[in-house]
Design a protein that fits this description.
This protein has 399 residues and is of the alpha/beta class. It is built from 18 helices and ten strands.
Length: 399
C-alpha cells in the first residue's frame, strides 16, 4: 500500500537509507523460550499443573526463586529518560532504544539477560516506589540515564530498601573504567596515583562518582569544576552532593575557573559538554594525561591534546585509542555480584573491578593501550571474579 505522506517526508526517506535506522527496525531484543513446549507433557511441566509445585516451593522458601526462575541471571535496566546520552531530557519513550542497547550489551558481554524498563515518572518518591515494586522479578537493578542530583537519592534509597545489587552505571561504571585507565596511565608515565594532581571537568553524576572513586583509590589531590568554577567549600551555590564533595576534595584550596586549576595538573578528566582550549592542555605538567570523554565530540581532540604535551589521551569514542566505555565494567560487575547473590555493590567491589580491569592490559601497556578493548574476551570474567571475591570478603555475598 502506498503512503503518500511518508513519500514527502524527508525524514522517512533518510530513515529508509540510514543503516542505523535499518538495524533498529523492530527493536534490538526479543524473548526466546529456554524450554520446549511442543507436547501436552511439555505444557504441563512448563505451565499448569506442574508450575504450581514450583510456585508453592518458592512461597515456602523464597531463595528458591534464584534456582527455578530467571531471577539469578536477569537485570532490570531502568530509566526515566531525563539524562539520555548527550541528548538530555528526552523522555522515557525516546530513551527506549538506548535501554534496549544496554540490555543487548549485558547479554553480549556478560551473558546476563536484561529487560529495558522506561518509566513515565520523574518524582523521586514515585521512582523509588515503582522500581522497588518491580524488583522481585529481578536479580539486580541497573539504573540508567537518570539526571543528577536525583540519581544519587534514587540509588541510595533503593539500595537501602532492596536486598539485590542496585547500580547506577552512569556513575559507577564510568568511575570503574576511568580509574582502571588512570592506574595504567600513571604506571606508564612512571608515577603512582599518589603522585597525581587531577582536575575533573563536570560535576554531574559521572563527574562526582569518578572523583570520589579516584580519591578513594589514593590520588594525590583532586579538584572538580562545574560551570561556575572549582567546587570549593567557600561557595554558597552548591547542592548537597557538591557540598559533601567539597569537604573531601581540593586539599590545596584552589578556586577560580577550571582553566586556572588545570595549570600544572597531571590529569584532566573531561565529563562535560564544554570545550577545552589547546593552551589549557599545554599548561598542564609534563607527560600530561587527558581523558576527554564528551560524546560525540571530545572536549579536546586527541591530536590537539598530543600536540600540546599530553602523553596519554583517552576518549569515549571507538575510533580513537583508549576508549573509556562502561561496557568494560557493568557486565562483569553484575555477573560477579549475581554469581554470589550479593545484596549490594560495595565500594570495595567497585575498586576490585577497576583493579582487575587495569590488570587485563598487562604487557600490552603503551600510550595507545591503557585500557583493554571492549571486545577483549578476558575482561568480563576478570572483573566478575574480582567482584565476587570482594563481595565475599566484605560479607555481602550469600553464596
Amino acid at each position: 500500500m502506498s503512503t503518500p505522506a511518508a513519500s514527502h517526508d524527508e525524514g522517512a526517506v533518510d530513515r529508509e537509507s540510514d543503516p542505523v535506522f535499518q538495524l533498529h527496525v523492530g527493536g534490538k531484543l526479543e524473548v526466546v523460550s529456554s524450554v520446549p513446549v511442543k507436547t501436552r507433557e511439555d505444557l504441563s511441566l512448563a505451565y499448569t499443573p506442574g508450575v504450581a509445585r514450583v510456585c508453592t516451593a518458592i512461597a515456602q522458601q523464597p531463595d528458591l526463586a534464584y534456582d527455578y526462575t530467571w531471577k539469578s541471571h536477569t537485570v532490570a535496566v531502568v530509566t526515566d529518560g531525563t539524562a539520555v546520552l548527550g541528548l538530555g531530557d528526552i523522555g522515557p519513550l525516546a530513551a527506549l532504544p538506548v535501554m534496549e542497547g544496554k540490555a543487548l550489551l549485558f547479554k553480549q558481554f556478560g551473558e546476563i539477560d536484561a529487560v529495558p524498563i522506561c518509566l513515565d515518572v520523574t518524582d523521586v518518591d514515585e521512582l523509588v516506589e515503582t522500581i522497588a515494586r518491580l524488583a522481585p522479578a529481578f536479580g539486580g537493578i541497573n539504573l540508567e540515564d537518570i539526571s543528577a542530583p536525583r540519581c544519587f537519592e534514587v540509588e541510595r534509597r533503593l539500595q537501602e530498601r532492596l536486598d539485590i545489587p542496585v547500580f547506577h552505571d552512569d556513575q559507577h561504571g564510568t568511575a570503574i573504567v576511568v580509574l582502571a585507565a588512570l592506574r595504567n596511565a600513571a604506571a606508564l608515565t612512571g608515577r603512582t596515583l599518589a603522585d597525581l594532581r587531577v582536575v575533573v571537568s563536570g560535576a554531574g553524576a559521572a563527574g562526582i562518582a569518578v572523583a570520589k572513586m579516584i580519591l578513594e583509590a589514593g590520588i594525590g589531590d583532586l579538584a572538580i569544576a562545574d560551570s561556575k568554577g572549582i567546587v570549593s567549600a567557600d561557595r554558597e551555590d552548591l547542592n548537597e552532593q557538591k557540598r559533601l564533595f567539597a569537604s573531601i576534595s581540593n586539599r590545596a584550596g584552589r578556586s577560580g575557573s577550571f582553566v586556572d586549576a588545570l595549570r600544572g595538573a597531571d590529569v584532566l578528566v573531561g565529563l562535560s559538554s564544554g570545550t577545552i582550549a589547546p593552551e589549557a592542555v599545554a599548561s598542564m605538567a609534563p607527560d600530561g594525561i587527558v581523558f576527554a570523554m564528551a560524546n560525540p565530540d571530545p572536549e579536546v581532540h586527541p591530536d590537539v591534546a598530543h600536540a600540546n604535551g599530553a602523553r596519554v589521551v583517552a576518549t569515549g569514542r571507538s575510533d580513537f585509542p583508549n576508549q573509556i566505555n562502561n561496557v568494560l565494567a557493568f557486565p562483569g560487575v553484575f555477573q560477579g555480584a549475581m554469581a554470589v547473590r550479593a545484596t549490594r555493590v560495595t565500594e570495595g567491589m567497585k575498586l576490585a573491578a577497576s583493579e582487575a580491569l587495569a590488570a587485563v592490559v598487562g604487557d600490552d601497556l603503551c600510550a595507545e593501550c591503557v585500557i583493554p578493548s571492549v571486545f577483549d574476551t578476558r575482561v568480563a570474567p576478570a572483573v566478575a571474579a574480582a567482584v565476587a571475591a570482594a563481595a565475599r570478603a566484605e560479607g555481602v555475598a550469600r553464596l
